[in-house]
Amino acid sequence: MSCWMPGCPALSMCRGLAALPITCLERAKDLKSRLGILLHKPELGHKTGSSSKLQLGSRRRDSSRDVLEWRESFDQLLKSKSGVNAFHTFLKTEFSEENLDFWLACEDFKKTRSKTKLASKANRIFEEFVQSEAPREVNIDHETREITRKNLSGATSACFNEAQAKTRTLMEKDSYPRFLKSASYQDMSKQAASRGTSKRSHT
């Protein structure tokens, strides 16, 4: 770009560049060319993309295997975080999610190490799920309820064991078989099985 008019911006820019030492100009050119190479390297983006695709594929295979394992036993379902979430969603349709919530609260309670927190948590769980007319009362017999009440006087990590076991048995014998027969689980297992078949056909 050239300009003969006085005060022209292009003319003053050219003069400014001409005044710079030659080594500065060479360094600027070198830096520009290096940046250009880095920005146009195709393998950088390609590697990142393929890595994320592999991780996504792995997650899909894991979740497919998980879904099919849920029908093997109630234990397998409870070991899976996504299984617990799916079962909880199903229980909501039957208005009985308090059984699973109580079981999960007991599992969390057992991990409590502080004696002070143990006592306060025990009372909170009892008031929410166990006592008669509790807001989210679980379906356990009177005897189990009374045993649990007595356990609160010297709360330990085992004070809900009997009530939790009764609730678990109820879910396993009653809700779990219906969950496996539900349309939602049937759809999930079909999708998981088809992904497994598709994977085998590509290997």
TrEMBL record:
Q: Name one GO cellular component term.
A: membrane
Q: Which Gene Ontology terms cover its molecular function?
A: GTPase activator activity
Q: What is this protein called?
A: Regulator of G-protein signaling 16
* Sequence segments annotated as region (Disordered): 182-203
**Tree of life domain:** Eukaryota
Tell me where it mainly resides. Answer: membrane
SUPFAM superfamilies in alphabetical order: Regulator of G-protein signaling, RGS
Q: Which UniProt keywords apply?
A: GTPase activation, Lipoprotein, Membrane, Palmitate, Phosphoprotein, Signal, Signal transduction inhibitor
Q: Which PROSITE patterns does the record cross-reference, listed alphabetically?
A: RGS (PS50132)
| Amino acid composition bias (Polar residues), ranges on this chain | 183-196
GO BP term, example: negative regulation of signal transduction
